[in-house]
Design goal:
Blueprint lengths: L3 H55 L2 H10 L5 H32 L7 H9 L2 H5 L2 H6 L4 H21 L7 H25 L9 H10 L1 H12 L3 H7 L4 H39 L1 H37 L7 H7 L3 H17 L4 H52 L12 H11 L4
Helix pairs in contact: 1-3, 1-4, 1-7, 1-10, 1-11, 1-12, 2-3, 2-12, 3-9, 4-8, 7-8, 10-16, 11-16, 12-13, 12-14, 12-15, 12-16, 13-14, 13-15, 13-17, 14-16, 15-16
Length: 435
Amino acid sequence: MLQKKLIQNIFSLGIIQIVNFIFPLITIPYLSRIIGPSGYGIINYATAFVGYFSLLIFYGFDLTATRRISQDPYDFKNINAVFLDVINSRIILFIIAVFLFIFSLLTINPLQRDVLVSVILFIGTISSLLSPQYIFQGTQNLVIYAKINFIRGSLNTVLVFLLIKKPEDYYWIVILSSSFSILFNLFLLIYAIKKYQLKFKWKKINESIKLLYKESRIFLSTVLISLYTTTNVVILGFFADSKELGYYTTSQNFILIVISVLSIPISTSLFPYIGNKLSESREDGLRIIKNVIPIIFYIYFFASLFILIFAPFLVKLIYGDLFAPAVLALRITSFMPLMIGLSNVFGIQIMLNVKLDKAFFRITAICSFIGVLLGVIMSSRFGYLGTAWNVIIIETIVTLLMYLYLRKEKIYIVNRNSFHPKNLLRTVNDVIKIK
């Protein structure tokens, strides 16, 4: 059965994510009608590209550092050691990212469509350096994290209406995004330093380099995952204009909002909890996951079905008539929430927690190679619709390969009987009980 803190984390994050889902529903209809598909295309392309630098700075520590802390979340000495490892390593990674960004800005043409937008978004990667999410995840103390994100969403919504009045004001979108990311992660870091009595000191560079090498497999796995997700936007940028980028990225952003609302409360809370349970008893950890999978399946399935059926209505309501071509892209990728939800359970929750890092890396490597190759072919021939098909095909392959590998390792976490409505109600009742 799930412990009280886990229930509180899932409930708190769930409420906050639902509220945060409302914020885009308020601002997007307003913004989309002002800046149009071209403006969205420019911002979303730069956001996708700068995401690579955030990925480099994060370096998978939200997985590996979370795992280290979750094994003993009450050991402040261990938390401080992990904090020093992460912050020193991220400083090195940020310096590397600065030079790589300057080089990219000078050599990649699609990134030069609006240099100022790219620069502002890159400044926002300072928030990746400061982010203490791994600490709050590892200690299963996510309520403060949820509250801060709620405040951030509220302020951003108000300022959007105050500052953005005409198409040229789209710069404010990235200014607000970068500013809030930095300020709120700085606040959370200061809060974590006080709460967990953290003390900073410089570590020898060779120690940080050793850690980066040690954690490189997980980092490369996160890079490979990005290659078959966000890289589709980057590839499309070489074959499509800003409008087509706008049609594709707005449909994908809507999908990602739905995924975040559904997955963040469960995934962010569940990962450290499962890690802790598996360190105590592999059998108990897998039993919990087996109980949760049917619930996750039905939630994601009906969310995906809703998107498929109501895509025309959703696009018109939220984005307006100018984004009508995005309807088909949204329908093509409507079942991404289901695929990503299941692959998150199979890959992040199970494979990484039971130390199947090598297999996780191999699967993501194979799918990344296929995804990039197929992405170039599909985007060049069929534009943004080809990119949409590529995304859903690769996500399905990833989910299937992870499931088959777990079966190969005799980890059976899907029981068909548990999906029956009668048994599902019994499972829900068991899950919500508190020790």
